[in-house]
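for the recovery benchmark. tokens below, seq after
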């Protein structure tokens, strides 16, 4: 009987361990990451800071600069260098030297069909040289927080010194999704590109991102973004999806062995995120978080501080909310007068020393300034306004303020002393 019981317990334990292991994606790629698009919160990571070859996912940064620096209607001309410098077996859409296209058309060919020549054309038309544009790519990457990225070309042609990381690509992609034109383009399954000189004729460009055709019970649809491949890099994909409540997740897979694998792992990561994480409320609006003593208050100086708005964050579905820490930062000292709703600081909510969210903290009631404090302030303001010239020596100004403060103190002292004497006389007379 004991042996049977032991076997049952062992099998249940094994099932529990196996179920947990299966809940975490097994990604057979060189690196991967899954993040919340809204704040960059990392939900899954594998070698996410490792320097790897980005291939055509490089074009995310090319598109960012193009949109931020250029105008969508801007007409651009293709040079021979731009058209032919696309690398061995580089993806292209057949643009010829001398062809002219608007920036918007070039961006569609760049991001939908991953055309290498369009990246070169954009760079040469927005900057004096391609090298100047590449320098801007690297500078912009650093501004976005990328620490393991170095671009040597505009389109991702292989070069040993041209690298990035899954984390850095997620930083670039999250920013790119804030640009409406970028978001619109990368969500397309195809694009009809007009032919130069004959706008009535078009060329059908099918998106390289096969995930755009995918559906899932976990999210409503794929929102983008970009694929990339070279022999040294392997198969890369940057993909994003959104669910019915508006939660958008983004994943990066780098160095998958096959094209199908890259899409398979990206979808698995997205589904893992939606299945295992959910938006949870960790703070309500007008929730008390702290108290502070208000200086120069006319009545009770103790003031309760409330949250200004609710805080909702993406957390593991089984997260123990009681483990979340809060750090309250108050702009001290707090002096009267204080009005109901005045912002007096903020509160940060953390888990494992990682910030989850924050909100301002506000005054729960109005506190007026005490009469003595008002009189003192009136005297000081009068001295400053009537005696001290605006451009006078600051030492003279503050000396006069100090003298005024002493005078006010003296007046109060005399009033209190006179009051005490009268009280004593009345007491003696009654006795």
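predicted aa per position
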């Amino acid at each position: 009987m004991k042996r049977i019981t032991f076997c049952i317990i062992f099998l249940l334990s094994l099932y529990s361990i196996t179920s947990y292991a299966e809940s975490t994606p097994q990604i057979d790629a060189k690196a991967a990451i899954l993040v919340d698009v809204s704040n960059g919160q990392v939900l899954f990571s594998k070698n996410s800071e490792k320097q790897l070859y980005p291939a055509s996912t490089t074009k995310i940064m090319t598109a960012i600069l193009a949109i931020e620096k250029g105008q969508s209607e801007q007409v651009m001309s293709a040079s021979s260098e731009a058209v032919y410098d696309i690398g061995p077996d580089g993806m292209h859409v057949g643009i010829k030297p001398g062809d002219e296209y608007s920036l918007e058309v070039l961006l569609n060919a760049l991001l939908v069909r991953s055309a290498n020549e369009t990246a070169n054309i954009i760079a040469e038309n927005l900057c004096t040289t391609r090298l100047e544009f590449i320098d801007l790519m690297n500078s912009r990457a650093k501004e976005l927080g990328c620490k393991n990225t170095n671009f040597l070309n505009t389109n991702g042609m292989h070069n040993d010194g041209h690298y990035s990381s899954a984390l850095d690509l997620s930083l670039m992609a999250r920013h790119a999704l804030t640009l409406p034109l970028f978001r619109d383009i990368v969500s397309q399954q195809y694009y009809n590109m007009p032919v130069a000189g004959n706008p009535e004729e078009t060329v059908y460009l099918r998106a390289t991102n096969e995930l755009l055709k995918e559906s899932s019970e976990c999210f409503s649809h794929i929102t983008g973004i970009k694929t990339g491949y070279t022999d040294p890099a392997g198969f890369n994909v940057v993909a994003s999806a959104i669910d019915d409540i508006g939660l958008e997740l983004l994943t990066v897979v780098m160095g998958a062995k096959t094209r199908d694998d890259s899409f398979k792992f990206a979808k698995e990561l997205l589904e893992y995120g939606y299945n295992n994480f959910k938006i949870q409320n960790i703070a309500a609006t007008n929730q008390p978080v702290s108290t502070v003593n208000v200086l120069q208050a006319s009545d009770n100086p103790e003031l309760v501080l409330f949250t200004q708005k609710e805080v909702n964050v993406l957390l593991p579905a089984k997260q123990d909310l009681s483990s979340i820490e809060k750090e309250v930062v108050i702009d001290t000292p707090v002096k009267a007068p204080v009005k109901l709703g005045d912002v007096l600081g903020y509160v940060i909510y953390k888990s494992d020393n990682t910030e989850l969210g924050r909100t301002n903290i506000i005054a729960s009631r109005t506190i007026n300034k005490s009469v003595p404090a008002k009189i003192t302030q009136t005297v000081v303001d009068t001295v400053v306004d009537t005696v001290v010239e605006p451009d006078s020596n600051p030492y003279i100004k503050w000396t006069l303020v100090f003298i005024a403060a002493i005078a006010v103190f003296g007046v109060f002292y005399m009033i209190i002393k006179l009051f005490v004497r009268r009280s004593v006389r009345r007491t003696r007379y009654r006795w």
